[in-house]
Amino acid sequence: MNNQPDQETLEQVLDAYMAASLEPSRKNLIEWIRKYPKYQQELTDFTVSWIQMETLPPYEREEIDLETMSLRGMSVVQNLLFQKNKVTADREQSQKIIKSLLKECSSEGYSQEQFARNQFISPAMLRKLDLRLISYETMPVPLLESLASLLHCTLTNIAIYFQGPQLQPVGARQKSKQGPIISEKRNFFDEVRNDLTLDEEFRQYWLSVEPKKD
Amino acid sequence: MPQINVSQSFPDLEPLTHRNKHGEIVQRPSDVDEVIHISLLHSSEELVEVAKIEDKTDVRFISEEALVYLTCLNFRTGNKEITDELISILIKRCTRFLQNRFCSLPENEANEAYEKAIEVLFDTILFREDGRGDFFQVKFWAGLKRISIDVFRHFVREIRKKRKSIVSLSEFTGDDFNEDEEYPEFPVSKSISYTEITDPEPSVEKITFEPDEIKDLLKVLTEPIRTAYILYHGYDWQIESVDPTEPTLSKHFRKTPRTIRNWLYKAQEILINNQGVDHE
In this predicted model, what pLDDT tens digit does every residue of B233-264 receive, in sequence order? Predict the structure, then answer.
């Protein structure tokens, strides 16, 4: 975002001051203070630092190897590039919007069966999750974490998806003039108990993590 | 530089977006545009070879401003290999400049300052979303000097914080003398110059000194009197002024004019004693 005219920032003023001044001088400083009185303190401090940098005696040290220093500089830039790439990747991940769980698992290269098995659920349960028929509040944390990990997104992305309204199955038609009656979302653990296609091993696992009712 | 009609021979370059203090979009100098256009005709390998040329009189020399454009272009188009090469070349061109700017800092701090300046430079060139990196395609060395001053300032502050009164900034011993001590009144009119300090019995003919000679002389002074001395004698700063816009030593150091005069007198005394000359 660029600044509008007449709203000179300190940064712009110092850049212009540098570009216009070959070396620090009192006369020049006074001229710039008169042009930008609100930056008097900053212009003065900046000029004093400039003068110190140019005039203070050098610290005694061994001969500097410019080649080594340049390599050191290159390493700094490589590190900067790595950090920036990581931030960009993290940002992209955090901004990921899941529109369909089934499409996401397909784009990650999984079949529905594979993906369901990786989540310790049945393909039927996966389809119910896809249509948001299961209440987010009842979903166990290990399932949410596993979904986030396999889909390369954050828990927030997963939460946003499941907290959305229930979806209609693809190809479903509404013939009635009245809108569809939306049933309440189902409890995850009830689904685990009632799903006849779910592996018994998986059922036992999920029921072992079911929160105890008071 | 070969004469080329840029507008007819080459496609447009990526425009700059940064605005100056007048709100105008900054413009690359036309000679920088020309160098960029010519550079874009090279193959990647040729470009790297030409970019390595450091002799400014060589017609193939690529200025730093043009190198910044080429680096950004290759970075954005994902040409990692050539981006790395151009970054490395730019770093090499900056290293001596930065080393000289930070030579008055202790070794560790000078190295850290160098690294910080490089980091800020490339962060600005490659990543700043406000377009500030554009400034480096217009006035590279002014931009780098600006960064070096900011970094220098930061490290001086850090050193002061860390060590307070211990030796730091090339014998930066801090406030190690009693500023309230009474010294003879310092003459307000400037009767002392570098020349007179180094030559207590000046001849009519003034002696010119090399900057390094003065720098060596200043080693014996401590802060803040050394900076006060430099500002007063080297940069013509006043101790006090009735003009509120005039930067003065008294305002800058937040000390009374009397204290500043004491500092200057003390500095004068130290310098003369260090010359082995009896001022009396």
Answer: 888 899 999 988 899 999 999 999 999 999 99
Instruction: Supply φ then ψ for residue A197, to 5 degrees.
Output: -90, -5
At B260, which helix (H) or strand (E)?
helix B257-274
Subunit contact B131:A3, Cβ cutoff 8 A: no
Report CA-CA distances (Å) from B215 to A117, B99, B123, B165, B212. 75, 16, 33, 22, 5
B218 interface with A at CB cutoff 8 Å: yes
Q: What residues of B are in contact with residue A7 (Cβ under 8 Å)?
A: 23
Spatial distance between the Cα atoms of A144 and A154, rounded to a whole number of angstroms:
10
Are residues B135 and A49, on separate chains, in Cβ contact within 8 Å?
no
Respond yes or no on whether ipTM tops 0.85: no
Cβ atoms of B152 and B101 closer than 8 Å: yes
Contact list, B214 vs chain A (CB under 8 Å) = 55
Name the E strands within B32-181: none
User: B235, B242, B260: best mutation site toward chain A, by most A Cβ within 10 Å?
Assistant: B235
Contacts of A59 in chain B (CB under 8 A): 103-107, 110, 169-170
Q: What is the DSSP letter of B207?
A: P
Instruction: Report chain A's mean pLDDT, rounded to a whole number.
Output: 85
**Interface contact A76-B87, CB threshold 8 A:** no
Please give the backbone phi and psi of residue B188, each rounded to the nearest 5 degrees, phi first: -70, -40
Nearest to B15 by CA among B25, B4, B30: B25
pLDDT classification of B109: cutoffs 50, 70, 90: very high
Chain B interface test: which of A29, A30, A52, A82 (most B C-beta within 10 Å)? A52
Q: Which residue of B has its CA nearest to A10?
A: B21
Taking the complete model, does pTM exceed 0.80, yes or no?
no
Find the residue in A nearest to B97 (Cα).
Answer: A66
Does the distance separating the beta carbons of A57 and B216 come in below 8 Å? yes
Q: Work out the burial of residue A3: count CB atoms within 10 Å of its CB; fewer than 13 is exposed, 13-18 middle, 19 or more buried.
A: middle
Does B185 contact chain A (CB < 8 Å)? Answer: no
Closest-CA residue to A167 (of A112, A130, A122, A124): A130
